[in-house]
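Box 3.1 — From sequence to structure: Ribosomal protein S9
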Amino acid sequence: MNIISSNIQNFNMTYSGTGRRKTSIARVRLIPGSGKLTINGLSGESYLQFSPNYLRICWAPLTLLGLNKEYDISVKAEGGGLTGQADAIRLGLARALCTINPDNRSTLKSQGLLSRDSRIKERKKYGLRKARKAPQYSKR
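Predicted structure (token representation):
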């Protein structure tokens, strides 16, 4: 029984990584395949509104390593907008590629694909209109 279960595990090798950006969270799973991108059950192109910029951002780690057609990507993305989700997918994909082969880490790190962008919206303060915008000053 153990021999059969270990063979099944080898065929179903999935690698996962989590990426975050602003308020977006993307859980990325890499499955050996033909290079399809699926986000929340939709094709990646239609989910990202056929934007070449968003698609380029999502595929950046795989194109850097030359693994475009090696893995199918399945993503569950939530929160934020398309820009935040695309950047979160990129980070999750880069982290998943590091679990596949630790040698990928130095290549991805040198291109800045493993750094989480920690900039988030600043909270509104009382007495102000937004985070820093004050009401108009009146002298008299």
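Summary of the box: Residues 21 and 84 are 5 Å apart (CA to CA).
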